[in-house]
Here is the input.
Amino acid sequence: MKTEIIRDPDPASIERAGRIIRAGGLVAFPTETVYGLGGDAMNPEASRKIYAAKGRPSDNPLIIHISKISDLTAVSADIPETAWALAERFWPGPLTMILKKNSSVPPETTGGLETAAVRFPDNRIAASFIEASGGFVAAPSANLSGRPSPTDIRYVIEDLDGRVDMIIDGGRSRIGLESTILDLTEEEPVILRPGFVTSEMLSEVLEKVSLDPGLSSEDPDFRPKAPGMKYRHYAPKGDLTVVYGSPENVVKYINEQSSLMRERGLRTGVIASGPDTGKYRADSVKNAGDRHRPSDISSALYRILREFDDEETDEIYSEAFDGPGLYCAVMNRLLKAAGHKTVNADMLVKEAP
Ligand code: TXA
Ligand code: MG
Here is the structure.
């Protein structure tokens, strides 16, 4: 398949993109979180094509993207008051809500579930593209299954050129991590995937909100409720370790390990933040931004993981970015990328004699 790449989307190219979707084709498009791989959410054949293009298991449901709050009623007949209140407060924006689905939503789009995920992205190009497409665009992140979500068109092209009809450029993704997923089908709202909209922010609207216990459990039988969260996504090709501890000990531990690995002929990399970046010695040291601004780290993380892949880095060490709010989403993705491999440098660094 020849993929048309749209560098400067104008009304005519967005109209063309919409026609591709309405005819059952696939278009990758920008959102404020990460790029999406879109198809008509109401067309089962289009959903099947999305799974094939991504190389994704078809039991993993897709998010339906809309461009008007009122279009919620076409996806679900059972919309709680809280959903309208959340939509008013956070849409357009990086919040996905899980609701009971309507019969008009095909099971192919929801991975066979009776519930549907819906979100209204905060991106001008996305909104006009969704509207031109008929209003309901099913889209997972626009990466091949198992790779970090793309935050720049060059990574979409890397993964999907020849697999979709069109790719629309929207520059770098502002947020850089996928949307918060909130399940509203249980008695109490549950966060199935942490994101930019934090539980603190949701508490402005909700009396109660909790985090899916399956997210933090190490027990493989304790499955996360969002089918996609059980897969080891976001995995770099190299071996990634997250290093906790005091900044001095983290630098010391990483430099010791890095020099050992380099002696063995391995290529090493570090995910660092702010002023400590210059203290690391490795083949490639990436500055993820100011550690006191978690939005810096969130918008840089996937790009950095992809760069390490491109550079064929064997051993990657990352500082830990612990904290409330958005740090929770950052650590969720970073720990997943690391396959939960962590060390505490405070326990391992030897005191100088
Ligand atoms: O920011 C985002 O959400 C991006 C952009 C493109 O909008 N999309 C995205 O889609 O991250 P995807 O497919 O990579 O992740 C969707 C997640 C998966 O973990 C999936 O299992 C979960 O949402 N999900 C979808 N429908 C669900 C449902 N009905 N119940 C539980 N989880 C669901
Ligand atoms: Mg994804």
The longest strand covers residues 95-100. The CA atoms of residues 28 and 37 lie 4 Å apart. The chain has two domains: 4-214, 239-351.
